[in-house]
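User: Can you predict the 3D structure for this chain?
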Amino acid sequence: MDKITTHHKTAARVAAAFGAAAVLAVAAPIAASAHVTVSPSNTAASSYSVLTFSVGHGCEGSPTTALTFTVPDAVESITPTVNPGWSIAKTDNTVVYTAAEPLEDGLRTTFALSVKLPDLPAGEQLDFPVLQECEVGSTDWAEPVVDGEDEPAHPAPSIVLSESTGGGHGHAPAAEESAHEETAASASSDDVLARVLGIAGLVLGTVGVMIGVTSRRKETSK
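Assistant: Here is the predicted structure, written as structure tokens:
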């Protein structure tokens, strides 16, 4: 086997490796967002927190028509945020968002609940089960996640409380709610940008390797 053929095979292997890495860079964030997730503005016991739930898929491809959020009894108050295109029904410990038009599978949206976190020890886990109803079927995101065990198929969104800061009286700060909602609204675009930049870096790396291999081949053939 001559040197030129060897260089060609090496270049092809390098390109294939970078291609696989690019696929993983895109697939990993998508897999991570396959569940209904929750992001708290803070987790301190006895404080107010804005819980932002993210939904980016239907029920095995079927559009989402409603979501029911169940809040633990220990949570002292719940204030749902108005979401355009969704009506709201609230009871003592549940909030139901119903879509005016079904949310197509693959489209992402968020729902924000302002809550007063309970006065419980740091490390206490709070689960927020979500029943996702679709045009065809439903998915109950209600299985508890246990440390040291494999993640269940339909895990309940959850947070872990941290130490109380001694505050938490009065009403949730408006500035905090506004800032958190802006962060949640931009999360999707930031995630897409990060993927694009990551793939661009991999492509540039591949091109650099190819140029180096080609230059070396030319020098060898002289």
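The chain has one domain: 35-193. The CA atoms of residues 47 and 169 lie 7 Å apart.
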